Amino acid sequence: MPATKTSRHWPLATALAGLLLLGGCGADSPPEVATAAPALSADLQTLYEQAQQAGEKELVLYTAFPETVELWQAFQQDFPGIRFKPTATTQLYTRLASEAASGNHIGDLVLTGYSELAELVRQGRLERDVPASSAAIPATYRDPDGYFQQPWVNAFTLAYNSRLLRPEQVPQTWEQILDPRFKGRFAHVRFVGASPFDAAVVLLQEEGKLSDAQLQGIHDNGGVSDNPGTLTANLAQGRTDFVLWAPAQVVARLRDNGAPVALAFPADVAILYGPGVASLRNAPHPHAARLFKDWLFTPRAQAIIAEQEYAYGTMPGSPTPKGFPPIESFRQKSIPFEQVNAYFDRYREKTRAIWR
Questions:
Q1: What percentage of the chain has pLDDT greater than the value 70?
Q2: pTM for the whole thing?
Q3: How far is the C-alpha of 324 from the C-alpha of 95, rounded, in Å?
Q4: 142-173: per-residue pLDDT in tens?
Q5: pLDDT tens-digit series, residues 246-293
Q6: Are 65 and 275 within 8 A, CB to CB?
Q7: Gap between the Cα atoms of 224 and 313, Å rounded
Q8: DSSP secondary structure code for residue 170 in this structure
Q9: What b-and-e string marks burial along 233-267, b requiring 16 or more CB atoms within 10 Å of the CB?
Q10: Across the chain, which distance is largest between two alpha carbons, in Å?
Q11: Which of 246, 207, 223, 229 lies closest to 347, judged by CA?
Q12: Which residues on neighbouring strands pair with residue 127, listed in sequence order?
């Protein structure tokens, strides 16, 4: 449900899949420039000219989504005068602390999960900035204090091997998932405290969709993996019948490449969890950063998000990824932003007690 007007709510169900570092473009390997860039809107053209007049020739994005290649290519295509450098980092806090201590600021933007963004706000690392193009997104997808906005959300749901299960055989309820016939035939990623998989437990238990007994049943009946990539590879190879809370965008790409995998969206399993984009304080390229943020909420970028990245754009009227249910079908709880990490901490204790 959307945030209220009287409290700062953070849609925990739609935070970033920070563990899915599946490869992509580093700081020294910008995406190749595509062809046939469309005409820019007057607003974007003005922002682009401001960045060029300020001598800003590059843009550094610290991101947990370096694999979002098609989207990065399109931005580089539209603004060839700015060298776009999406940079994967698993040491974000350390990196930003080092830049602040030295005064040598390199990063301009972060695209990361709500738990990380909450901590960056606490540390004073972010600059308030609300791109004009994001004005129409629902309150659920933006920080009311203006520190960050959410350009898309990803689905985490049940994925299955289409050679081992027909669609009508795919379990749709926890009773069916935990049926003895599936014991040892499904798996999930290990809960680590602040991942999409932890968020699934937080949300589904808060919403009354997943009981403590069912959570114990997942432990007793399913396998666990420390690596999302290994989990989806095992699924494609037929070593697992189905996977809980698989990243739908990854599974869809495997399917497109001929792997025998498919997606189901059971109401008591599927969640949305996506990135927030924020400007860093003392960014060396602030005009380019504003340009990128404004561009993310344009119809062009939102269409690429759906059609190429298999994610849900947050702008009203954005297309739905092919074969996915409409975004309105996901009914999810909002949690006060300032309590996000407290929720994760509380449920981390529960999952650690079960998965010792």
A1: 88
A2: 0.86
A3: 37
A4: 898 999 999 999 999 999 999 999 999 999 99
A5: 999 999 999 999 999 999 999 999 999 888 999 999 999 999 999 999
A6: yes
A7: 31
A8: S
A9: ebbbeeebbbbbbbbbbbbbbbbeeebebbbbbbe
A10: 66
A11: 207
A12: 279
Tokens 């289409």 correspond to what residue? 162
Residue 160 tokens, joined: 């299955």
DSSP string, 203-243: HHHHTTSS-HHHHHHHHHH-EEES-HHHHHHHHHTTS-SEE
Query: Is residue 172 a contact partner of residue 179, using CB atoms and an 8 Å limit?
Result: no
User: Could you give phi then psi for residue 270, rounded to 5 degrees?
Assistant: -70, 135
Backbone φ and ψ for 99, nearest 5 degrees, come out as -65, -40
User: How far does Cα 293 stand from its chain's mean position?
Assistant: 16
Quickly tell me which residue has 């960014």 as its tokens. 283
CB 158 within 8 A of CB 264: yes
Structural tokens at position 239: 């070593």
Q: Over the Cα atoms of the chain, what is R_g?
A: 20
Residue pair 291/48 in contact by the 8 Å Cβ criterion: yes
Q: Which spans in the chain are helix H?
A: 42-53, 69-78, 92-102, 114-123, 174-177, 196-206, 212-221, 228-236, 248-256, 286-296, 299-307, 340-354
Decide: 122 and 60 in contact? Cβ < 8 Å.
Answer: no
CA distance 356 to 61: 36
**pLDDT of 183-225, one tens digit each?**
999 999 988 877 888 889 998 999 999 999 999 999 999 999 9
What whole-number distance in Å separates Cα of residue 119 and Cα of residue 107? 17
CB atoms within 10 A of CB 41: 15
3-class DSSP state of 186: strand
- Six-digit token string for 225: 């993996």
Answer whether 228's CB lies under 8 Å from 254's CB.
no
Residue of 202, 231, 207, 226 whose CA lies nearest to 339 = 202
238 vs 245: CA distance, rounded Å? 17
